[in-house]
Amino acid sequence: MSADHDGANLLEVRGLTKIFGTLTACDHIDLNIAKGEIHALLGENGAGKSTLVKMLFGSLEPNSGEIFWNGEAVRITSPGMAKKLGIGMVFQHFSLFEALTAAENIALSLDDGSPISSIAAKARALSFSYGLPLDPDSLVGDLSVGERQRIEIIRCLLQTPQLIILDEPTSVLTPQEADKLFETLERLRSEGKSILYISHRLEEVKRICDRATVLRHGKVVGHCNPREETASSLARMMVGNEVKAVVRAPAEGIETAAPLLEIRALSRKPATPFSIPLKNINLNVRAGEVIGIAGVAGNGQGEFFESVSGEVLQQDAASVRIRGKDAGALSITGRRLMGAAFVPEERLGHGAAPRMKLSENLLLSRHATDGKVFVGTGGAVKSAAVYAAAQRIIVAMDVRKSAPDPEAAALSGGNLQKFIVGRELDRSPAVMVVNQPTWGVDAGAAAHIRQALIELARSGSAVLVISQDLDELFEISDAIAVMHNGELSKPLPIADATFEKIGLLMGGAEPGHAEHVLETA
Amino acid sequence: MMRLELVKRPQRSMLFSALSPFIAFALTIIAGAILFALLGVNPLNAFEIYFIEPISQVWQLHELAIKAAPLILIAVGLSVCYKANIWNIGAEGQFILGGIFGSAIPVLFPGFEGPLVLPLMLLFGMVGGAAYAAIPALLKTRFGTNEILTSLMLVYVAQLFLDWLVRGPWRDPQGHGFPQTIQFNDSAVLPELMPDAGRANWGFVFALIAAVLIWVLMSRLLKGFEVRVLGSSPRAGRFAGFGLNRMVFFAFLLSGALAGLAGISEVSGAIGQLQPVISPGYGFTAIIVAFLGRLNPLGIVAAGLVLALTYLGGEAVQSALGISDKVARVFQGMLLFFVLGCDTLIHYRIRLVGVALANGAAKLNAAPKLKEAR
User: Membrane-spanning residues where (chain B) (predicted)?
Assistant: First the structure.
């Protein structure tokens, strides 16, 4: 790329390098972003995308290299400075205070002392005009991932940036919501704003991005026009070789197999004024099958997961049954001991303790189920056995890391997710419940996780996958049910399911769809 | 206009994490030198009296052990609390209740003698400390109260309760009206380790044993793992199936029991009877010990010895130089201040933000945007 100074480039990056110890995370990166373009940044986990954008946003300082903003050399030393230059960022991991409302969170980042009420009004107006519905007065702690992302986007837009960096923005959206986001992005582009769009979803990159820069192992491997490429040619550039397609072997004899996970008339009152009540949910997951639960973020999936996992107990013990026995009154440990395994939506802080080593995070979910192997007499942890098992999982799931047993927070999102899923698969659980198995995970890692879930089911386990990624659900599910407003539709066998049917259910188009469930119960 | 900002460091330096207590100690010495100089005392002379002389003879080392024992015992218990992100500030009260419970046997049954007396007293002391610590635990788990406030307030209740006991129902009838209980009988007195060399009693051995046991608990046992998980990420702890309420009770009962053991060891070992005041603030100083020892039981043993020395040094400068022994509190306070300061700077770096600079950057091209935003 030529480093021209004709003023058409909003941002120019030349030879940007960041070294962590012995690892060169970014190696002489060149990147130009023109005014009014949507520029894709593609790359696998660990390719250096996050490091690059952190340097652009001022949260990391480069070891060498130059950044030009409107043709002038700048040093971006802090996110505050990036914001002042006109760079806004929507992170994949949100930085919001859960105990504050959406408007209060926005006010904090604006830092200009205007009253909350006027910020809330502005946010509401902006969210409405950009098609990102949001109640500024709701508490962040009660919002779903998708809704939190809207706060981040609106917070970013309120600062009227010239360059907006979006990190995996559609990973939490429905097809319809993603379409709306694309409209928003196209509108921003027509207003002359530039967008740096980080994604692994190649179809959408092809659809909305004008140019793409592909990173691999910290180096730029190419610039291209994604519209002239195919999804597979982009994937090849990104991964360096072909991504294996997920193979879904036909499920045989599912109809007659015993249900290993039964949800019967599960209801739950809202825990807080903002959370979704669960209404009379019924579902059977049989040995050998994968059931997918689709739904727009914030329709009760989180509450449902907590109820099934046992992080929240039920009053009616029969409302959750595992392998034919009542489990509703049992804790998560009790349910694990019955053969169930769980993978929550949030990786850091829920599925894993960020500042603990991977081996310790293995112990986190398996100290009871593998008590004989991992815990000796008198409650002594057998560190060697735990370490060996962690290494086994790391190899089986191809987890990439910089140290033999690093802290969970040191891993990229996709690699940590591979470990968290692998930690449960390693037990060969009879029942596996996964919430958002591949959120923010790159194509290669996602395919690996999905294939592993299918294989677990085909080996005789019942697998329940809650996901907002419809492509994923169609790829791996034998039947798809839809959660809307705390109710669950009857599962549609995959042969009958279409994007349109599922999309309509996700929008709540079928009034009283819970009645169908009642008939089968 | 300049302002200071704390910026989180991407990586913590392992070297400085290890060095932090030593740096803090060095800074305390420097600040102390300034303090002594301002008081008109030659700092070198003062430091010799403060830090060297109190430990230059064997019997003085015994005195050091007597002061260090309760600090270590309490601090290792507190380290478990603080690792679990549970803030027991009331060890002083648990120490006093341990002393009272344990003393109940020799005070109420002065005729009861034999080898059973002492173990029973120690057990009672632990029960007393744990029971008193259970109050803030119960309040926290049942009503969501802040344990910092409740545990701290209960300290004053304990102090006044002890004062009332020794002036009222438990006062020695033959004590000429002095506010104290009878002297404990011989079998109720914690024996000295080496009576020929000095006064140090078995309390110091209890402290070392407790430190080793808590170290094993925290680094080798599943329960210690539970403490660390719940302390660092409670939601992951819940996912692991660990109960936060159970942990609140575990941490409070354990630290309370150890504080109680320290209390009865002090009363039956170093004092030999109950008095209106049985602690020079061990329960509070132990908080400093816990942090100076980096919440690591073995580090706490070292930190306990250092803080014990500040007590002895305070007494020494009072008698030799006529400086108030409150100087010990000043040293303890400075040490805590510098430890916390060093720890903060390991996690964060200070950055001077010049407002002029920031404005300049903004003027580059964001001027219209800023107007809009404001």
Answer: 21-44, 64-82, 94-112, 118-139, 148-166, 202-222, 243-264, 284-309, 330-350
